[in-house]
Amino acid sequence: MRFREIKNDFQPAILFPSITAGLIAGVVTISLEISLAALIFSGDLDQFLAGGIGLMLFGAFAVGITIALTTSLPGMVGLPQDTPAAIMALVAGAIGISMQGDDPQAIYSTVVAAISLTSILTAIFFLLLGRFRASGFVRYIPYPVVGGFLAGTGYLLSMGAFGVMVGVSTLSGLPRLLDAGNLILWVPGVIFAVTLLLLLRRWNHYLITPGALIVATALFYGYLWIAGIPVSEAASQGWLLGPFPSGGLYQPLTLSSLALIHWDAILQNIDKIATILVLSIIALLLNASALEVTVKKDVDLNRELMASGWANLAGGLGGSSVGYQALGLSALAYRLGAKSRLVNLISALLCGVALFFGASLISYFPKPILGGTLLYLGLAFLVEWLIDARKVLPIWDYLLVWVILIIIAAVGFLEGVVAGIFIAAILFVISYSRIDAINAILDGSMYHSKVDRPKPHRDLLHERGGEILILRLQGYIFFGTIQNILERVRQRMRGNDQNPLKYLILDFQRVKRLDSSAVFGITRLKQLAEANKILMVWTQIAPEIVTQLERGGLHDRTDDSFLFEESLDEGVEWCENKILAAEGIQDLTGVMEKVESQLERAFPGLDCVTGLMKYLERRVVESGEVLMKQDDPAEDMYFVEVGLVTIELELPNGRHMRLRSIRGGATVGEMGIYLGGTRTASVVASRPSTVYRLSLQSLTEMRERDPKIAALFHEWIARLLAERIADNHRMFEALMD
Q1: Which of 84, 130, 675, 723 is 20 to 30 Å from 172 at the Cα level?
Q2: What is the pLDDT, as a whole number, of residue 311?
Q3: pLDDT tens digit string along 233-250?
Q4: How many helices (H) and strands (E) does the chain have?
Q5: Mean pLDDT score of the chain, rounded to an integer?
Q6: ∠ CA 540-544-548 to the nearest 5 degrees?
Q7: Which residues make Cβ contacts (< 8 Å) with residue 238, sequence separation at least 6?
Q8: With b meaning 16 or more CB within 10 Å and e meaning fewer, what string describes 438-451?
Q9: What CA–CA distance (Å, rounded) separates 598 from 455?
Q10: Distances from the Cα of 126 to the Cαs of 68, 79, 244, 266, in angstroms?
Q11: Residue 589 has pLDDT above 60, yes or no
Q12: Residues 493, 504 contacting (CB under 8 angstroms)
């Protein structure tokens, strides 16, 4: 309970709007609850209407007080709602039919017990959901659906306003508004609503609404005085609320009446009771979520569930129907500037006064003004979502708001929301399918593995690299995106000006999930590859996706028609090795190119190789031997003559990540010897290897003793680094396309 917060609400800027909103909410709530009681206790049950009115007013009192003190959003209004009451009317009618001819007191007790049981079960349901913080699903409801929900609320409020003023609350009854006798009942209310809407759209002062209500009420009674119309005649002509029953109305169950309850009649309607539970949770969360949009402030949905749970427990124990937070009246409070718990407290206390002392005083409130206030709120929602929203919503989202509104008006509220979610899901699928599932399209001429190879091998791979097609996939792969992947492969196969496609790499690093239709599409891709003798390599695929493919019959671990590799780098390396092997280069792990041959190719026609060799130290290293250690001083570089060494990054968790592999005919460590500092990675022999070491001291001696050789050596290193930069530049350009 927030007594300190409530104490602060007595400041004039908060108090006056709160009193205004609270009185309006109280009058509307009393009128609504009397109507809902008449809905539940209708037909053969109308003899119990007085008791039913008392139960609903008690619910408005109990639910209102509880939600006022426990809600996360001051200004939130809670009361027994119309949707649960409408279904409860079916339950009550079915109980009345099944118990026809029984003692009237037994029928009344059974109906009240059904109402109480439903409210208590709903309370437990709400409390459990709030306790386990299970409200998050409503956050996934698309924004246009919330907009359509609010527009539909505006429509229902507008129709309800005409129902208050004229008794016409359906589209079929609208022609009656043009009857001469009805014009006087609703035209003043419409004028009041439109005037209030225009005033509040231009100025947002907390005194505008209460001032407008006082002025309008004074004008109404001034007109009656000038025209000489008695108040009784105004009431008989439908200009005033009421008449309401007078005196005490509350008739709850007593201990003696418990024995009269027919529980079997209640259990026969358990399906309808379950429906109330489901619809109530959806309606409550939608109301709260929509109110977030209206007030532009986060609402703690789990706390609202708890608040509504305790409210229904209190109301249900007293015989009330299911209640929860009301969107319309809560929004009205905020639009009037009444961001205070006093709103619901005043409204609930007014219902309590009507419950225990009668509602005769409220019957003097003019219907056109009450209806005009409700119409203002309905028009505010409609203007916001049918006119203002056009400036901020994309066209399809804006049209969806209209579709939901039309369905709500023509069919029903729940149907409109469900249809809106369904249509939004279809639009999402269509929009998402337009997002390319391919993050990047590369080939082997622009994207190389992290393996440094001899220059002849590099030249060959650059020439034949177009035989490798790399598709880096992303997102959620489903039927709407797999077709694009298939089409891209077909386009590449039809490319007459390119090397024939022989290797297809699908990189799944950014893929979150596949659906069953995507598995079927990939099966077609596999069949296409097999028919055209294309080898497939799948890289960095999640274990759960592998399992999904196996269940779909796509992949058998003994199937060698395509290969799984842990990384894109390893997949590209495998394809490169295949291309080299096709050219007769088989023993890639033992590639040997004597250092003399490397240098002679680097310095054709120059007699400096012998002079350079004297500065190199030949070493034979075993597998696992460390040539360079991460964080050690960078004081040497190596020429790899035969074997394989790997550059590894030592991670904080103790694991090692491969950065590059260096085969015979390549160099490693040249950047460190020029830049100095410490090693950023380690170099380890992955195979028995023969290497030649050039130390920093030897390089210094070369500069001093053989400056010509040193200059040529520097030029060679510069060309080598330039080639690597050019390769990286081509790769980055391809990734950025």
Answers
A1: 84
A2: 96
A3: 888 887 886 665 555 567
A4: 27, 16
A5: 82
A6: 110
A7: 166, 167, 185, 367
A8: bebbbbbbbbbbbb
A9: 9
A10: 17, 15, 33, 21
A11: no
A12: no
pLDDT of amino acid 588: 52
Res 641: pLDDT: 83
Between vectors from CA 480 to CA 475 and to CA 486, what angle results, nearest 5°? Answer: 90
Q: Does the pLDDT value for residue 603 go beyond 80?
A: no
The residue that leads in pLDDT, 51 or 309, is 309
| 716-735 mean pLDDT | 74
Residue 633, beta-bridge partner list = 678
> Which long-range contacts (C-beta less than 8 Å, at least 24 apart) are formed by 254-258?
257/105, 257/109, 258/109, 258/113
Q: Which two tokens stand for residue 732?
A: 């980055």
Residue 473 and residue 511 in contact, taking contact as beta carbons nearer than 8 Å: yes
The helix or strand, by DSSP H or E, that contains position 37, with its residue range, turns out to be helix 12-40
The model's pLDDT over 514-553, given as tens digits with 9 standing for 90+, comes to: 777 777 777 788 888 888 888 888 888 888 887 777 776 6
**Any alpha helices (H) in 45-166, and if so which ranges?**
49-70, 82-98, 104-131, 143-165
Residues 6+ apart with CB under 8 A from 544: 513
pLDDT in tens, 46-70: 778 778 888 999 999 999 999 999 9
Domains of the chain: 3-427 (no CATH), 438-582 (3.30.750.24), 595-736 (2.60.120.10)
Task: Look at the block and give the residue holding tokens 């924004």.
Answer: 143
Give the range with max mean pLDDT: 56-65, 382-391, 530-539, 655-664.
56-65
Element holding 203 (H helix, E strand): none
- Give bridge partners of residue 440 from the DSSP assignment: 472
204, 321 in Cβ contact below 8 A?
no
CA distance 315 to 123: 9
Phi, psi of 732 (to 5 degrees): -65, -40
Residue 299 has pLDDT above 60, yes or no: yes
CA atoms within 13 A on the CB side of 717: 20
The verdict on whether omega for the bond into residue 243 sits within 30 degrees of 0, i.e. cis, is yes
Q: What is the pLDDT of residue 591?
A: 46
d(CA 298, CA 285): 13
Structure tokens at 346: 């005043």
Q: How far apart are CA 282 and CA 413, in angstroms?
A: 12
606: three-class secondary structure by DSSP: coil
Q: Which amino acid is at 637?
A: M
Burial tier of 230 (Cβ tally within 10 Å: 0-12, 13-18, 19+): exposed
What's the pLDDT score for residue 421?
Answer: 84
| Contact status, residue 81 vs residue 28, Cβ threshold 8 Å | no
Question: What's at 625, amino acid-wise?
Answer: E
**Rounded-to-integer distance, Cα 470 and Cα 462, Å:** 15
The Cα-based distances of 172 to 169, 176, 186, 684 in angstroms read: 9, 9, 17, 85
The answer on pLDDT for 118 being more than 80 is yes
d(CA 591, CA 641): 8
